[in-house]
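Homework help board

Subject: predicted structure for assignment chain

Our instructor gave us this sequence and asked us to write out the predicted structure in token form, then describe one feature. I got the tokens but I'm not sure how to describe them. Can anyone check?
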Amino acid sequence: MERDLPKIILLHGNNGGKEPGGTAQDYWFSHTQREFERSGLHVVAKNFPDPMIARMDIWLPFLKNECGADEHSILIGHSSGAIAAMRYAEKNRILGTVLVGAYYTDIGDEIERQSGYFDSPWNWSAIRNNQQWIIQFASIDDPFFPIEEPRFVSKQLQSEYHEFKNRGHFFETEFPELVETVKRKIF
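My token output:
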């Protein structure tokens, strides 16, 4: 009997609140989508509404209703997309999460504050318990978030943590380490 393969949902970031905002084609998303599809995986890569601020009360319903996130889904989130993935996992069962450039405070940024993700305390145990695994990628030279942010997230979530020295906020056009790490979890 062939096992069902998970659905991968890509969650782009908000592009720092700059026009036109983040898209599902930003940075490494298109290449990653192609690589997963070559392996026979179904990938959902939609442009989220409200791409400049990425408000939680808009993004989380979109993730569930338009992207079809469920217990067979792997959420791969970049920046504010990673934050949305964590908040989604607080109240919904999913298969796993990949967090790229994750953080847990608004770091005093007005756009981040407006998003609503930081209005209530994090329920770290619910995020952990509502999925089978969590993978995280961070870089010491991230220009937007100090490395203490993703390190704290990793400690709370007990994630499989990959830390780089020279990847910034992961704006490259390819991300082979992510693709290979996720494939090892699936196949």
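Reply (TA_rk): Your tokens look well-formed. For the description, you could write something like this. The radius of gyration is 15 Å. That's the kind of observation they're looking for.
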